[in-house]
Amino acid sequence: AYMQPHLLGNEFTHLEFPRRVQRKEVGKRMLYRDFNMTGWAYKTIEEDDLKFPLIYGEGKKARVMATIGVTRGLGDHDLKVHDSNIYIKPFLSSSPEVRVYDLLQYEHGPDDVLILATDGLWDVLLNEEVAEAVTNFLPNCDPDDPHRYTLAAQDLVMRARGVLKDRGWRISNDRLGSGDDISVYVIPL
Predict the structure, then answer these.
(1) For residue 137, with 0-12 CB atoms within 10 Å meaning exposed, 13-18 middle and 19 or more buried, which class applies?
(2) Residue 86, Cα to own-chain centre: how many angstroms?
(3) Where are the domains of the chain?
(4) How far apart are CA 152 and CA 136, in angstroms?
(5) 12: left (phi over 0), alpha (psi -120 to 50) or beta
(6) Is a pLDDT exceeding 60 seen at residue 72?
(7) Can you tell me the distance from the alpha carbon of 45 to that of 32, in angstroms, rounded to the nearest whole number?
(8) CDD domains annotated for this entry (predicted)?
(9) Could you point out which of 14, 42, 73, 91 has its C-alpha 20 to 30 Å from the C-alpha of 159?
């Protein structure tokens, strides 16, 4: 965005401010940072700073060009910002992380599984928490039960969603449960 601003269609800024800049703040000083900065500095707001930020929102709600979450960028080569001719693709990676695991190189038991899940699970549970949950769940199932892996997947979904309390959905240690979609596959190796 900094090196090729023309790709932003003159509608977005690569600068980051603590919040969206408003017209009444032109001429006033506000904290900002750029991609090469390790901290924040002050800047006098100019008309150009009123543009929409390249990354809008925080955490799971962050959106590239106010249109799409970064995780949605794989494969969607023709995606444009709503009502414009600005392509989003230059700002997202189209190269997924790929790992190869040779199934024939290792021996696997009935409790050795691969977990394939959407970010609704991974946003709230660590890899170690998921591994521990499945490791504790599967031995308590009948090894001949054809639904044991489905039950393990359902258990993970419920762990990520949490329970409804007076302050919303909560998981262990009173952390927020997932507000995103949660799909889980437990695949026996």
Answers:
(1) buried
(2) 23
(3) 1-95, 111-186
(4) 10
(5) beta
(6) no
(7) 10
(8) PP2Cc
(9) 73
